Amino acid sequence: IDTMIPLQSREIWKKHGVKKFEDADEFQSKFIQHVETTLARSLYNCDDLAAYQATSQSVRDNLVIDWNKSQQRQTARDSKRVYYLSLEFLMGRALDNALINSQDGTEEPGVQKRERIKGAIDQLGFKLEDVLEQEPDAALGNGGLGRLAACFIDSMATGDYPAWGYGLRYQYGIFAQKIIEGYQVETPDYWLNFTNPWEIERSEIQVPINFYGYVDRSGSESGDSTLSASKWIGGERVIAVPYDMPIPGFKTENVNNLRMWSARPTTEFDFAKFNSGDYKNSVEQQQRAESITAVLYPNDNFQEGKELRLKQQYFWCAASLHDIVRRFKKSKHSWEEFPNQVAIQLNDTHPTLAIVELQRILVDLEHLDWHKAWDIVTKTFAYTNHTVMQEALEKWPVGLFGHLLPRHLEIIYDINWFFLKFVESKFPRDVDLLSKVSIIEEASQERQIRMAFLAIVGSHKVNGVAELHSELIKTTIFQDFVKIYGPSKFTNVTNGITPRRWLKQANPKLAKLIGDTINDPQDDFLLNMSKLTELAKYAEDADFQTKWNDVKQFNKLRLADLIEKLYEGEDVINRDHIRNTLFDIQVKRIHEYKRQQMNIFGCIYRYLSIKKLLSEGVPINEVEKKYPRRVSIFGGKSAPGYYMAKLIIKLINSVSDVVNHDEEINNILKVVFIPDYNVSKAETIIPASDLSEHISTAGTEASGTSNMKFVMNGGLIIGTVDGANVEITREVGEDNIFLFGNLAENVDELRYQHQYHPKPLPEELEQVLQVVESGTFDGDFKPLVDSIRHHGDYYLVSDDFKSYVQTQSLVDDVYHKNKKEWLKKSILSVANVGFFSSDRCIQEYADEIWNVEPLNN
Ligand code: Z15
């Protein structure tokens, strides 16, 4: 059907054409229009929430105009597009980001667009800060993987890449965390409560998605071959409807698209059921459809293996692939051209079914020859691995899988058959190798599909997310594939973060100081971060150090306010001493491998040491010289079913209770747990850190990205030689980071020693564990203590504790006895953080993996 406006009518279109608001006055006009019509409210009835919604609608209007232009341009140029498939997009708030990104370089020097809108909102009787606070986080992710996807789409838009994100529009994002009597309690995050001004519903697009059923091969030419076109008769059908979110770039008119699918029932009605009088049942079955996109699975680095999760994955892959293929077909290229028009990046193995679905579309629906189809598929896909931890690697039992997706299971068997034939031709009679690399794992009671292996076989490139991690995958979990394909299929792209959100938005004061200092009033350094190196020459400048320290001071006060609010008025952080109180922060998902338990044991050790000196009669001001003022701040969610992580949260809160209320120690140590850590809280927390902790057992944290955020905000790191800490050390210099602990190469041996030659614990840790066992802190922490004492200390807390404690006292020395040195380290770190911009990552992906170019106007 032709949906275009006839030529003779287009003049009318042009006459009325929509215009962006360009200044404060035009913004106010739009704002009022939206209050009165979109919201149907008035100047007598306009609160902060209404102001937020009207502001967002106005800003969105501008984005949509650019969005339309960008999409038309991308179509007209017929350039290769990138599709970033991620089951998580941890976006946080959109409004401030859109305001910052609306800066286009055309404004007169010194007046940024955001400032003008702030002024306009002021005049209307609101405060921008309060208006921004009204927005709920779009929290459609768990942690690093989801936030990485959010940073990447920001950088793809900023770099003018024709790129779309595809995800799921969960009705419930990651749960909100409450702390009740020290324990985590989960409450649902119904984030769509007040309609979401940032999404555009596209009900006109409806993609049918099938599940279950059987394969009918009666019509196919060769009868029994699964390789030729087969007909899958689905047994259950739901409809996928997209919701689009405009993604603005910084200093560009390019606006990309994040397309999120939502599940709806079909309008087809089961008349058989209806006629048999089972009306209620057939309505209920319809309702089941919506449950597919109801809720985000709240696990980070852990696979749960539930049928609903597999359903989510297929629903999303099938809808996205259908959309991509439809767009490709409109461009009238031949199928061989597909990999020159389309690059699909798989964010972990969660979208691996997209590989199988494309093969199915090409063979079953488009009737391409199997091998021709497979050649297209493998040239299209690339796969990013984010972990080496066994419990996070996806495997699906063939029974469950084949029931839900019978045709896809056949296709996987065929893919595996050809793959193993290829292996056998390269390494004849190596049966051992065949079973090691088979996509179907035969060893366990039930056969399982190894999704990572399928992703490797179906992709042309596989990458890890930091140098150490990319080396580890080649030498451990994927070593046989390096032997089979050669090393060039495997590459590294070290993660990054967007400096727009994590510097400009989170830390406007620091961004301003940097801009003023390096004479960059238009914030070009946010695009070209190598400009930051100019800061190095001020590293020892006393005047500059003072300004730098003042910004940190401001941010620490801002965090103190947040903590006071969350602690319902309790004055946890003593503002009088904030200048010489070290803020030590560890915020991230709670996981044994990230070792928050080691951090809290360190706090206990410090507390005990202080108490010991006091009991020996040492006066408190003398004690303070040895243990200067420190606040240890924790935050993070545990997966609801992760017992040990929940116990760690309880221990932190119980220690906090004892330490914070012990008047004898005169506030020289505080322990704080910030409930419900999320993206918007991170924007307040991260800029306030003097020191942050990235202390995973070596070899377990693939990259980490909050380490980069802290450094970008002038915080120093205490960390292990793990993930991207390695490259951070290379970039900022080893004098500017506090590294400690065992190396990844020794972890196996240490674990072996724990198993077969257990040794007594180091005395520092022994002391701590005994106090924990004594019941000083409310709760039963036996399982936590036993995991170290009796169950092999898998995360090697006992091996690293001593060097951790020693390194902490080195930190104290520099911070308190040599503040100038500290500030120098802080400034030099920011000067050299440029490498960790996600703009650099996207450029690497574009050049080395996707083979796409930016689209310039
Ligand atoms: C997740 O957040 C990460 C890896 C995973 O396999 C899953 Cl399922 C979730 C994290 C890594 O733990 C972290 O080290 C990395 O920085 C992040 O992905 C982004 O690559």
What does this structure look like?
The strands form six sheets. Strands 1, 4, 7, 8, 11, 12, 13, 14, 18 and 19 form a ten-stranded mixed beta sheet that branches. The relative contact order is 0.09. This protein is globular. It folds into two domains: 78-94 and 135-494 and 844-850, Glycogen Phosphorylase B (Rossmann fold, 3-Layer(aba) Sandwich); 572-815, Rossmann fold (3-Layer(aba) Sandwich). Helix content is 47%, strand content 14%. The protein starts with 9 loop residues before the first helix and ends in a 7-residue tail after the last helix. α12 (353-365) crosses α15, α22 packs across α33 and α23 (596-615) crosses α30 (763-773). The chain contains 34 helices and 25 strands. The mean pLDDT is 96. With 857 residues, the chain is α/β, with parallel strands linked by helices. β24 (716-720), α28 and β25 (738-740) form a beta-alpha-beta unit. (1S)-1,5-anhydro-1-(4-chloro-2,5-dihydroxyphenyl)-D-glucitol (Z15) binds at residues 142-145, 148, 300-301, 348, 386-387, 392, 465, 495, 701-705, 723. (1S)-1,5-anhydro-1-(4-chloro-2,5-dihydroxyphenyl)-D-glucitol (Z15) is lined by residues 142-145, 148, 300-301, 348, 386-387, 392, 465, 495, 701-705, 723.
